[in-house]
Amino acid sequence: MPGVLDGVRVAAFTHFAAGPLTVQFLGALGADVIKVEAPFGDFNRFGIRDHNGKFGGISPYFVTLNRNQRAIAVDLKDPRGMEVAQRLIRSADVMVENFKPGALDKLGLGYEGASRIRDGLVYCSISAYDLLGPKAGELGQDLLIQALSGFASLNGMADMPPMPTGSYPVDAYVSFCCVIGILAALRHRDATGKGQWVRVDMMSAALHMIAQEASYVMNVDPVTQRSASNVVHPDQAAPYGIYQTDDGQAFVMSLTPPATLQKLAEKLGILDEMAEHLTPKGVKYDRDKVAGPLGRRFKEMPRDEALAVCRSLGIWVAPVRSIGEALEDPAIVARDIVRETESAYAGKHRVVIEPLQMSETPVTFSRPAPALGQHTREVLAELGYAEAELSSLEAAGVVVAAPSS
């Protein structure tokens, strides 16, 4: 069944995470995505990998972020390689890039240059800061943006350093913003025939992720107040947070009104320690005097018992699971969001696919991440290159072509 973007071609000048995630999602919606790599490949191919040789030395991060794409390897510093890129752009509806700011402009493949090559092109740029702003040339990466945006300042205990997350949330959020912008721009082009420049910068995206916390800072308290105990959100009242138990496990407790907290404290035998703080104001401004006793008491109990006590009072709680445990959840297994795939260089492996469900045009799972240059010959032939030209470019090192599979 064709996807909603069947017939749309995407030229992807992307690497690392945010760019590949964006075009991978477009591929899942049916677009023909052509990933353009240098002859030495995307850095992320070999970034975080199993040095024991699984995946043929390729990073599992790469194989999960570059599905639903074909790949060509081209030397853009060679005029003949530039001609390949220009032909590709001329055939494309969308171009996505997250190269170093200005890098493609120097090659004539920035927004202005690419728009002259392909009238009506939807051109999407991903950068650390807005490319038309005062910090347009500055570089960024997820961890750096978590720090610069204030995202990291929200996490961790008050007497400890700020704590960034153990994943790449800014990259992921940026990619979703890009997909939304590209789809809207394609809709506009359908109506008017005009392309446009879609820009998403990581700093703005990170601030949008914490828009509600930023609103509190701008309108209520300019100083972010982290808890000294277990409360994991700077603006939430106790007991909103994470609690350890005596079996080495942990669980989280969500929003709980003071009246219910009083019943919980009675069951746990610690009401005397916190009774005076169990008011709407007290659980917010004296939250450590509520969360502290709860944390000490839960550390004396096994997790299952702690969960049972909380659930008996209707309190929202959940165990802290490992990624492996989450993947084994029957709901996740039934959802079929984890799929097995196979490629010539990575063998059989499992990946988590896009979380979107559509009744009439379901997302596709058609291609594993490509080998370097796996589709060079296939795509260049589609762009009009004859066999003799292909062989000449390959022999000169202008393109890299791996055996197709």
Structural summary, described in words:
The chain starts with 8 loop residues before the first strand and ends in a 5-residue tail after the last strand. Helices cover 39% and strands 14% of the residues. The strands form 3 sheets. A 7-stranded mixed β-sheet has the order 6-5-4-1-2-3-12, sandwiched between helices. The protein has a 3-stranded antiparallel β-sheet with strand order 7-8-9, with helices on one face. The protein has 2 domains: 9-209 and 330-400, Rossmann fold; 228-244 and 250-319, 2-Layer Sandwich (formyl-coa transferase, domain 3). The protein contains 18 helices and 12 strands. The model has no long low-confidence stretch (mean pLDDT 95). Strand 1, helix 1 (18-28) and strand 2 (32-37) form a beta-alpha-beta unit. It has 405 residues and is α/β, with parallel strands linked by helices.
Which helices and strands, and how do they pair?
Layout: E1 9-13, H1 18-28, E2 32-37, H2 60-65, E3 70-74, H3 79-90, E4 94-97, H4 103-106, H5 111-117, E5 122-127, H6 142-149, H7 169-192, E6 196-201, H8 202-209, H9 211-219, E7 241-244, E8 250-253, H10 258-268, H11 271-274, H12 282-285, H13 287-298, H14 303-312, E9 317-319, H15 323-327, H16 330-335, E10 338-343, E11 347-352, H17 376-382, H18 387-395, E12 399-400
Parallel strand pairs: 1-2, 1-4, 2-3, 4-5, 5-6
Antiparallel strand pairs: 3-12, 7-8, 8-9, 10-11
Give a short summary of the structure.
The protein is an alpha/beta fold and 405 residues long. Helices cover 39% and strands 14% of the residues.
